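Board notes (copied after class):
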Amino acid sequence: MSQLQGLVDDARECARLFRLGRDVEAGLAMVALIESAQPLVERMPGDAPSSWNTLLALMLSEQQTQNWISLADYLEYEWVQLLTADQSI
């Protein structure tokens, strides 16, 4: 399994945890996910790093307001789309 596919799978699992209301466990998983993805995103071309920062700000805002469903959607859809743009996984 590639690193990218692992990140996508982890993001989807983290989203699932948020949807199940397991916010503490999901929050810890999200921190690990962000730390793992950061080096990959920094090497991406174009405006990916800027989009990454915007997405992180939105996700952290949702986490602060405890909007777990919206946060899960960001992880499962926006995060995955950002990581897989111009990729085939």
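Comment from the instructor: The chain has one domain: 3-84. Helices lie at 3-19, 23-42, 48-64, 68-84.
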